[in-house]
């Protein structure tokens, strides 16, 4: 998520969960190509962040090829191509982000070019449609064409359409309704492909509900950012079956401080204390002391020059009982979210072969 899942957030996320797959922010192919002498700033990450997926965006085959080639030595575990971003800054620049869903032939070509320049699997993240092109059959045509024209075998489906005229990116993540039945229709109609569900899933209970209904993978966006401790803190044990680590937020912050102080000012004046602390501001979500800690943080941003001094000045607001407890019971979610999904599935996909091949 742009401005959110940067290196700092991913470092925190990995301290909380050893197994969750982490995704970078979308990086434009052009940024990688134009910054080729400065790539570490955009592409480097610590080895602990594996498994990690690099998401790239773009609409120029040459740049996509070059960007993938430049990223290859960084050994991401998968390269994902963004076909879901509705931002006018992205979608408005010719055909980029969600708008690309209207041109599956190009996406197929782009994915072939990306796959040809990397050693790792490739995937597409998309919506279930764009504007009036929102029928289940059109979504299937997109998946069919992209997977027939390229080696793409994994699709991450943000299960609402994108509306490209008139509403903001944030509204585009809430106004178009979620249609999980389209996602589960894809699982039925493309049994040889892998699908990861995304959109509105908030906790491990709901992740498990999606998996029970057949999803191969589940992507959590905003909930993992707004409440990282509660949401990611149960992933290893509840989803991956690993023993609970028993780690506490005090232990996580001790490690994070070492990381934070080592990166301050690495690129000239950036990152600032504020940049490094930003993902931590949600670590005490709804806990006693959270409001006071945020107020202290606002003041500390004015004068603290290190993460160590920032913690000394602010963490007194958080009671020891919060700092020293392992993660509490998982939040209870909508366990029955997908219970009736089979009765809602769209009519099975009918491949209009001629239209698809000669469109
Ligand atoms: C601030 C922000 C930035 C985002 N940036 C990206 C991005 O760079 N690439 C992408 O594929 N999706 C991006 N998204 C969308 C999320 O990945 C996700 O698809 C969406 O929020 C729905 O999932 P959720 O309900 O779990 O949050 C962004 C979302 C937010 C809130």
Automatic annotation (TrEMBL):
Its cofactor is FMN. Belongs to the dus family. The active site is at 85 (proton donor). It comes from Castanea mollissima. GO terms for molecular function: flavin adenine dinucleotide binding; tRNA binding; tRNA dihydrouridine synthase activity. The keyword Mitochondrion does not apply. NCBIfam families: PRK11815.1. It comes from the Eukaryota. FMN binds at residues 55, 125, 158, 198-200, 221-222. Residues 1-306 form the DUS-like FMN-binding domain. InterPro entries: Aldolase_TIM, DUS-like_FMN-bd, DUS_fam, DusA, tRNA_hU_synthase_CS. This is tRNA-dihydrouridine synthase. Keywords: Flavoprotein, FMN, NADP, Nucleotide-binding, Oxidoreductase, RNA-binding, tRNA processing, tRNA-binding. Catalyzes the synthesis of dihydrouridine, a modified base found in the D-loop of most tRNAs. Its EC number is 1.3.1.-. Pfam families: Dus.
